[in-house]
Design brief:
about 325 residues, alpha+beta, 6-stranded antiparallel β-sheet, 5 helices, about 15% helix, binds zinc ion
Length: about 325
C-alpha cells in the first residue's frame, strides 16, 4: 500500500548528512545568509541525532521549532533514560529498579501465597515496586508525572517530515507549512495521531532514520504520506495530511500505522560492522492534539527477569487513551 518515497539513514560510523538547499529556508522562505548561522538538526539532537542537519532551516525557524522539539523530548524523556541515550555516562542514568536508602521496604504475601517485596522511593514522584511470581522477578517503576504540550510535540514530528519532503511534494503541503510557522495555532483538531513503538529498550542503537512512505495508489482510502522516525530505541509514526490529496477520506484519522517496522543497520563503526535488523514493537496509538499541558504517555516501566532462564525484558505501560475506542486499527506493512 505504501512505498518508500525518501529515507535518510544516519548513525555511528557514518558521516554528517546535509539536507536541503543552502541558505534558502524551506519553511519561511528566508534567503538572508546572515540568518543561517546556527546548525539546524533535522531530527532533534536531544533524541540522539548527531548526524543529520538541514541547510534550509533558518535561525528564526530553528528558534521557533526548538519549542516543538523540547515538548517531544519531554514526552519521551523517561524512555530515553532507559534507552541509554539521554545522559552519556552510566552514572547519570536513572537507577531504575534500585532502592535508595530513604525508601521504605515491606515484605508481603498475597492471597495466592506469592512473596512480594514492595519498596517506595519518595521525592521525585516516582516509585519502584518489586514482586516475585514463581521464578520471575518483576520490577515496576512508576514514572514521575512530567508534563508536555502534545501539539508542540506533534509539530516537531511534522516539521521533520516536512524537512524530508522532495521538492515535487512541497506544493501539496502549503497549509502544513503555514501551520508549522504559527506556534500557537488555533486549528481545531480532535485527533492528531502518533504511533509510538520501540526496540531494544535499555540498549539504544545509535542511529537516526527518517522515512517518508507514499501510498502507491492515489485513490486508496489512506493518507498520502506517512512519516516514520526511528531514533535510538524509539519509533514515531504520523500521517502527513496534504492540502487536498485526502479529500476522499473521512476527516478523522483512521489509525493508519505500520506494524512490524524494520530497519537494517550496522552495529558499529569498527572495521567489520555487522549488519543486523531492528524490529519495532506493536505501536501504541496516542492523541497529541491538545494545546495544553498533559502527562507524558508512559505510566510505568516494567522489567521482568526470569531467575530460571535469566531472560529479561523491558516493557512500557502506556496511560489509557479513552478516545481510541472508536478508531480503527489498520495495519499495513509497506510493499
Ligand atoms: Zn525560516
Amino acid at each position: 500500500m505504501y512505498e518508500v518515497l525518501r529515507q535518510i539513514k544516519a548513525g555511528v560510523g557514518g558521516g554528517i548528512i546535509k539536507l536541503g538547499e543552502r541558505h534558502v529556508c524551506r519553511f519561511c522562505g528566508n534567503t538572508d545568509p546572515r540568518r543561517f548561522r546556527q546548525r539546524a538538526h533535522t531530527f532533534p539532537e536531544a533524541l540522539g541525532n548527531h548526524w543529520v542537519i538541514s541547510r534550509d532551516e533558518c535561525d528564526d525557524c530553528n528558534a521557533k521549532f526548538s519549542k516543538y522539539e523540547d515538548a517531544l523530548v519531554k514526552a519521551v524523556g523517561i524512555i530515553l533514560t532507559v534507552g541509554g541515550e539521554k545522559g552519556k555516562g552510566h552514572s547519570s542514568r536513572r537507577q531504575t529498579g534500585r532502592t535508595g536508602s530513604a525508601s521504605t521496604v515491606r515484605h508481603l504475601r498475597d492471597a495466592d501465597g506469592n512473596r512480594r517485596i514492595s519498596t517506595r522511593l519518595r521525592g521525585d514522584g516516582s516509585s519502584v515496586r518489586l514482586a516475585w511470581q514463581r521464578d520471575v522477578l518483576t520490577i515496576r517503576h512508576s514514572v514521575a508525572p512530567e508534563k508536555f504540550v502534545p501539539r508542540y510535540a506533534y509539530k516537531a514530528l511534522t516539521k521533520m517530515a516536512y524537512a524530508l519532503l522532495p521538492d515535487e511534494e512541497l506544493a501539496n503541503y502549503g497549509q502544513t507549512r503555514t501551520w508549522l510557522l504559527d506556534v500557537n495555532d488555533s486549528e481545531d483538531f480532535p485527533v492528531l495521531e502518533v504511533a509510538l513503538s520501540f526496540t531494544l529498550l535499555g540498549n539504544a542503537p545509535p542511529l537516526a532514520v527518517g522515512t517518508l512512505l507514499r501510498r502507491s495508489d492515489p485513490l486508496a482510502p489512506i493518507p498520502h504520506i506517512l512519516f516514520l522516525l526511528s531514533i535510538g530505541s524509539l519509533c514515531f509514526q504520523i500521517d502527513l495530511r496534504s492540502d487536498h490529496l485526502e479529500d476522499h477520506l473521512p476527516p478523522i484519522p483512521i489509525g493508519q500505522t505500520v506494524e512490524g517496522w524494520r530497519i537494517g543497520c550496522a552495529t558499529n563503526s569498527g572495521p567489520q560492522p555487522e549488519p543486523y535488523v531492528l524490529t519495532y514493537s506493536k505501536p501504541s496509538i496516542l492523541n497529541w492534539s491538545s494545546k495544553t499541558l498533559r502527562l507524558q504517555p508512559v505510566e510505568e516501566l516494567l522489567f521482568h527477569k526470569s531467575m530460571r532462564t535469566t531472560a529479561a525484558e523491558f516493557k512500557l505501560v502506556m496511560r489509557d487513551e479513552p478516545w481510541l475506542e472508536d478508531s480503527g486499527d489498520d495495519a499495513d506493512v509497506p510493499g
